[in-house]
Amino acid sequence: MANSRLGRGFAALISDMREIDSPEIASYDEKGKLNQGVNEIAIDLIKANPNQPRKTFNEDSLNELAESIKTHGILQPLVVTKIGEYYRIVAGERRFRAAKRAKLTAVPVIIRELSEKEVREIALVENLQREDLNPMEESEALYNLLTENNLTQEALAQAIGKSRPAVANSLRLLTLPVQVQALVRDLSLSTGHAKVLVAVKPAEMQIALAKEVVEKKMSVRDLEERIAELQKEKKAPAERVRTLSPEFKALLADMQRVFGTKVKATGNDKKGKIVIDYYSADDLQRIYDMIERLKEE
Question: Which of 48, 108, 118, 278 is exposed most, by the fewest CB atoms within 10 A?
Answer without folding.
Answer: 48
